[in-house]
Design goal:
The chain is α+β, with helices and mostly antiparallel strands and 62 residues long. It has a domain of 38 residues. The chain contains two helices and two strands; from the N terminus they run βαβα. Strands 1-2 form a two-stranded parallel ribbon. It starts with 10 loop residues before the first strand and ends in an 8-residue tail after the last helix.
């Protein structure tokens, strides 16, 4: 089923570039908002981005 794109006015700021912040930014973009994603660290992804170092063989129960 195709989503109807509606033009929205304004912009939204999402604080935090973890997995929830990135998903929120994507969802808001799909709704037609211009999104500013702000993250304090140099990379986005939060803890999920570090799991490849913790479980390098992808052998975890997540």
């Amino acid at each position: 089923m195709a989503k109807a794109k509606k033009s929205r006015e304004g912009a939204v700021m999402v604080l935090g570039g973890g997995i929830a912040g990135v998903q929120a930014a994507l969802d808001l973009t799909d709704l037609g908002y211009y999104v500013y994603l702000v993250e304090k660290s140099p990379a986005i992804g939060g803890v999920m981005a570090q799991l490849d170092k913790t479980f390098p063989t992808n052998d975890c129960s997540l």
